[in-house]
Design goal:
137 residues; mainly beta; six-stranded mixed sheet; five-stranded mixed sheet; 0% helix; globular
């Protein structure tokens, strides 16, 4: 009789309060974001240096963050689709890649940004509970 084999299917979850530079090894990590020290930046690795499929999840943990949290790619290579509580996709990139996703101080706990790369471009999807609390630049 064979014993049961259990697999660890838990996701890696990291509290991130302040600036951080993501690593390829962080792929699959869920970052719980806050900015109690003020505005900060999460820097993504250069997409061209990554294998396709590298992905990160960012979840707002601090309800109405103390300062804006910028997720920065370093160049205009993020294509994002988003929906917010206004029922619109006004901050989607609409086919024009951007360099930054900005989680503003009106964001709410649970707002989420998923990002992955195909090895050259970043693709993102965002759901936000507050109209226009996540923008791009």
């Amino acid at each position: 009789k064979m014993g049961r084999v259990f697999f660890n299917t838990r996701k890696r979850v990291v509290d991130q309060d302040g600036a951080y530079t993501c690593l390829a090894a962080d792929s699959g990590t869920t970052f719980m974001l806050s900015s109690t020290g003020g505005a900060c930046e999460i820097t993504l690795p250069v997409a061209a240096n990554l294998e396709e499929g590298v992905n990160y999840k960012f979840v707002v943990k601090e309800d109405t963050p103390t300062g804006a949290i910028t997720i920065a790619a370093g160049s205009a290579i993020i294509d994002m689709v988003m929906k917010d509580s206004g029922g619109n996709a006004s901050n989607s990139t609409a086919g024009t890649a951007v360099s930054n996703i900005i989680i503003g101080t009106a964001a709410k706990q649970g707002d989420i940004v998923n990002i992955f790369t195909d090895g050259s471009t970043y693709y993102a999807e965002c759901l936000s509970s507050t109209d226009n609390s996540v923008t791009t630049s």
